[in-house]
Amino acid sequence: MSRQIVSIVGGKDATAASTYESINPARTGEVVARVGLADAETFAAACRTARDAQREWAKVPAPVRGRVIASIGRLVEANTERLARLVTEEIGKPYAEALGEVREIVDTCDFFLGEGRRLYGQTVPSEMPDKNLFTFRNPVGVAAVVTAGNFPVAVPSWYLVPALLCGNAVVWKPAEYAAASAHALFRLFTAAGLPDGVLNVVFAGGADTFGGLERALDEGTVQKVGFTGSSEVGRKIGELTGRHLQSACLELGGKNPMVIMPDAELDLAVEGALFSGFGTAGQRCTSLGTVIVHESVHDAFVERFARAVGAARIGDPTEDVLAGPLLDRKFADRYEEYLTWIEPHHKVVTGATGRITKDNPRGGFDGGDGLYYHPVVVDGVRPGDRLFMEETFGPIVGVTSFSTMDEALDLANLPGYGLSSSIYTTNPQHAFRFREGISAGMVSVNNSTSGAEAHLPFGGNGKSGNGSRQSGMWVLDQFTRWQAMNWDHSGRLQKAQMDVADIVPDLDFRLA
């Protein structure tokens, strides 16, 4: 029996304007949840509710807010298996990966629970006597957070946990196709004791979300927007917030390169490429886009990579598999378009392409009615090819070759994204030269392009984002604003840069 889910604003169910069915992509005939979608006005109203609730939440001492975050972590930890199973059921993520995703929420809470006691300001010396200078971190106000569904619970926690800790209220719009997972996470957060209205969840389509956000920004009820999703939509969000003199926290797509140097350990490189290219069926923002392999080891790498992909298990995400189905029908449709970008000069080294069916099976697996697709490795991609230049959200990886490090860096940076990157080498000089030359916000050495830790900055540049960072202490700058205060107790007006003691040096002095 499917779940019935609606938006929750101020602790109360909101009226739905339409209904969306969230399906199990491993068994497309199974409806996981029937989701009541809100309209633009409901989103805007949620932001008004959050504004009113935020004023009281900000008065709660930060260490006490930290204890709420600690409770969220413990509640998520106690519900790990159930939440992970729901993620697997709703988006087809392999259960082992879903468990890791839930663990990431706990890690995030464990990091930030102490930040309630470390929202430090500073005391700063003044240039004048009898005057003290201070700095403080203040909450921004209301954060509107829009997240994708490929990481339906971990990525939202990167926004929600620090935003709430810092004294903000949140209106969260999850992906419709991951609504059941989002609703479960919302319930865990509110069970920790959050007052009504401090965290609100609104399920809505893209147009209504954008319209509601535009209305809220016009009304002045939103002071920060966080968005995880495509570069195309991220641009629109950035333009909208820019008109209101705000800077959104944008975590967008990637065309993440992996450079294989001639001194690389090829078996290790293949393992990293397999996981980052085809884990979660290639549906991560940090998934591998193009392998840029030195010409001297190109053939050996491609042969091993193709063999590893051929041996990898694709199938039921509740079992021990590398990848399950694509997230939703719309992603399957989009992926089939990406397959049309394969050109005559390309060479598919992994065999079959397209959806896994009885007529197009993968070994003994026919895919049933699930959205399962063959993993594809395309050798011979060239600069300018769509497969080389554009993000392909799904199980397809391109391969090209290079001769010099400068050429490898040029190829890695050419698509204009800048999220994640990787280099396989046993030479430290190569590793540091790559780090200096790559435009990505994240660099891995002898590791895959995927994988984040809760205390390390996460984010990208270029088409991958606007330089904002999530996770760790760095995200505090997204959800707080610095305030400077000066306190003059001299009893007279002292003018900065004017009433300053002047000590005159003898600059003509020379040693005899």
Characterization of the model:
The protein is an alpha/beta fold and 512 residues long. The longest helix has 18 residues, at 40-57. The model has no long low-confidence stretch (mean pLDDT 96). It has 15 helices and 20 strands. Helix 6 links the parallel strand 9 and strand 10 (199-201). Helix content is 36%, strand content 20%. Homotetramer. Pfam families: Aldedh (PF00171). It is an enzyme of class 1 (oxidoreductase).
How many domains? The number is 2
By DSSP, the count of extended strands is: 20
Could you give me the name of the CATH homologous superfamily of the largest domain?
Aldehyde Dehydrogenase, Chain A, domain 1
Describe the strand arrangement of the main beta sheet, using strand numbers: 15-16-17-14-13-18-19
Tell me about the largest β-sheet: 7 strands, mixed
CATH architecture of the largest domain: 3-Layer(aba) Sandwich
The structure class reads: alpha/beta
Helical content stands at 25-40%
Give the CA-CA distance, first to last residue.
95 Å
> What share of the residues does DSSP label as strand, in percent?
15-25%
Total count of helical runs of at least 4 residues: 15
Mean pLDDT, to the nearest integer, reads 96
Low-confidence stretches: none
Protein name: aldehyde dehydrogenase (NAD(+))
Subunit structure: Homotetramer.
Enzyme class: oxidoreductase
GO molecular function, one term: aldehyde dehydrogenase (NAD+) activity
